[in-house]
Amino acid sequence: GKWVYLFGDGKAEGKASMRDLLGGKGANLAEMSNLGLPVPPGFTIPTTVCTYFYANNKSYPKELKAQVEKALDIVGKAVGKKFGDAKNPLLVSVRSGARASMPGMMDTVLNLGLNDVTVEALAANASDRRFAFDSYRRFITMYSNVVLGFEHHHFEDVLDTYKDSKGYSLDTDLNADDWQVIVGRYKEVIARETGNDFPQDPHEQLWGAIGAVFGSWMTARAVTYRRLHDIPESWGTAVNVQSMVFGNMGDTSATGVAFTRNPSTGERRLYGEFLINAQGEDVVAGIRTPQEITEAARKESGSDKPSMESEMPEAFAELTRIYQKLEKHYRDMQDMEFTVEQGKLWMLQTRNGKRTTKAALRIAVELANEGLISKKDAVARIEPASLDQLLHPTIDPNAERDIVATGLPASPGAASGEIVFSSDEAAKLHSEGHKVVLVRVETSPEDIHGMHAAEGILTTRGGMTSHAAVVARGMGKPCVSGAGSIRVDYGRGTLSVGGRTFKAGDIITIDGSLGQVLAGRMPMIEPELSGEFGTLMGWADQFRKLKIRANADTPADARTALRFGTEGIGLCRTEHMFFEETRIRTVREMIVAEDEQARRAALAKLLPMQRADFVELFEIMKGLPVTIRLLDPPLHEFLPHTQHEIEEVARVLNTDPRKVADRVRELAEFNPMLGFRGCRLAIVYPEIAEMQARAIFEAAVEAAKRTGKPPVIEVMVPLIATRNEFDIVRDRIDAMAQAVVKETGGKLTYQVGTMIELPRACLMAGEIAKSAEFFSFGTNDLTQTGFGVSRDDAASFLGPYLAKGILETDPFISIDRDGVGELVRIGAERGRKVRAKLKMGICGEHGGDPASVTFCHEVGLDYVSCSPYRVPIARLAAAQAAL
Ligand code: ADP
Ligand code: MG
Ligand code: MG
């Protein structure tokens, strides 16, 4: 087998496309060599050796040793040195490098090959003893730490004691003799603490380092990182062995890192830092303050330290030439590492640079405008989910933050408001015009109305997939979850943390992007939706086939959705209009009413409120389609709970509270989600559906009068299992439409369709489509009923299922293609067979999940509907699915 790939000297055995084999670092070192860039020669031991290593009881392929020896020879010849040689030793770095860059892997070891003999040669050849012993002590520190697992502080103690004894304050105060003494003391500490002498044999050092790289693939840190980032264990890491160049050879030498564009703003300008007379990680380690690379950046920062541009003009000119070449070649912003050895520039790494979403947008759009990539490429390059970062108000970055506690960044954006500790209180205060932050130990489905009413949600318990986190993300509300240091006392109405106490009504701010809880109200910045964001979204719209609608229950939702580019409302849940404090009482009257007459009386009170809701919604949506779903949730959810609520209802109905309590018991359900809900309500209590249909149609006539544009209405019947159910409800709706036309003389354009959210409905879709004019796949309920799993109760076992790999992803977040997806596919096919023009979409959480959007594109749906804040994400995901 081939276990070694050489690079350097203007050529290489590998190339960028061989990333799987050579790892990212190795592949790009090869690519840079092929481009003729100055790369110190070296070789890559491929990931296949790592795989072999773990498959064969941590041993190496038998040819490896000979191949490494040979490669060392070739590399040595290329630089005129020899590994282990007492006169002219080749020194190398040993660098790990997986396919994806992975913190948690072994740190790089520099200056490997130094020992008590070779250090003298290095000193003599460079005519610089200080440099040689500085390199040696660095090597001993890195090797001991990384390979021998020896703790840093031993060395720090030695160095500090020595500096104190000499009255030195900086490392640069130490001269050659000082470093030589330090090296001796380091070796003593190692021998004393580990019982072994520091290895003097360069070959032993090399294999020790190589083994450490492969060993680091399975450390707990690396395993955790891979699990969090979906990196398969089978990938393995590569090892790069590379001849050293020295940035610590005095004032004409340096080391640095640079981006071809600004990674936080995307601005097109070389951006980076460097340090004179330094090695490797000194720049990031913060030992000394690094200097700016360009003169322009130095002026802007007001630094008095010279820039690389002025200090090392030749190396800077070379870096400029190279970075432009690299960016053209890779057609993307590059993150580079370089070293200058006595005036000569060497490239040590390049990769596509990490960037903020804001920068990613600017860079993609500018690269396309510069002609380096196509518009399609630009659209393909933005991770749809990452847009979330941009779509919410954020705290003014210049504002002073009084951080009270931190938790998990569960849902992005920031919000300020009065502290409330109960959802009812939140809803009440909200309806009175207050802005509130809902603070709970944790939330449950009973808190939905409170979460809706709140500007943001803070919980002290629960993770990134807790109820609060998932629901908040769906609503586009900022949420900090699991802020464990906070103690909530519901009884007293206080929140305390670190000796500070906040009462209900006190103002706090949460930053859901950083997971921070802040005291007081913070100044906010509204998201900037123009500029590159607008340009890129415009390009995305040119490519996508799916239409994007929003789930919007309120005028505020609808306006947000329009701002984000929605093409209609795909789901308006009428029940949310009922949860409002003033209305819920009337809804309760309606529910506990003992006969139709009493029920109709309550419904008559709700009619004008509901009509007004729709008029406003139709006006806002101006001729775009609006899908209105008839009342869906279990009546159970609206029941009065407390004695106070029961008495309140009894008073209005003029009956005995005990009677009301009896009725409540009668209506209580064991399994409400599979109980008296959906179209079953409209069938058993037709007057409810009639009231809603009347409200919709009267509102339509009214809105048409006001705007001059007839609304495009889609009335949606939920939870259909049989065609019969649909026909019964549909007849009522049609009859109501006719009545309203007759009464008002107005004109109506509407369709009646259904949610497809039960497995039976998917199978019977052909039958249902004979009557229904559109389908909206309710993938939330379809997932619940398809899996037989209640979402609200899934927390206790879904986590272990995911951990054990029984499920790959949470099916409530990303659609289960194989099972639930197959039901959708069947429903779509059978429906279209009967009605070729059947309009089909999905609504629910999945509509804003990029992978699910891709699925919907593949199945050939007409649209997806998602929460307003996810509309841009869905637009981009739909475009990418169509590229
Ligand atoms: P990381 O993956 O943590 O960035 P690297 O392998 O890139 O680790 O090494 C870190 C730094 O070590 C490099 O940026 C470079 O400054 C230095 N380095 C690595 N190899 C060499 C070398 N052959 N000569 C000089 N410096 C090197
Ligand atoms: Mg690096
Ligand atoms: Mg449903």
TrEMBL record:
Mg(2+) binds at residues 757, 781. Its cofactor is Mg(2+). Its EC number is 2.7.9.1. Keywords: ATP-binding, Kinase, Magnesium, Metal-binding, Nucleotide-binding, Pyruvate, Transferase. Residues 435-515 form the PEP-utilising enzyme mobile domain. Residues 20-57, 58-301, 315-364 form the Pyruvate phosphate dikinase AMP/ATP-binding domain. The active site is at 467 (tele-phosphohistidine intermediate), 843 (proton donor). Residues 530-881 form the PEP-utilising enzyme C-terminal domain. It is an enzyme of class 2 (transferase). Belongs to the PEP-utilizing enzyme family. This is Pyruvate, phosphate dikinase. It comes from Afipia carboxidovorans (strain ATCC 49405 / DSM 1227 / KCTC 32145 / OM5). The gene is ppdK.
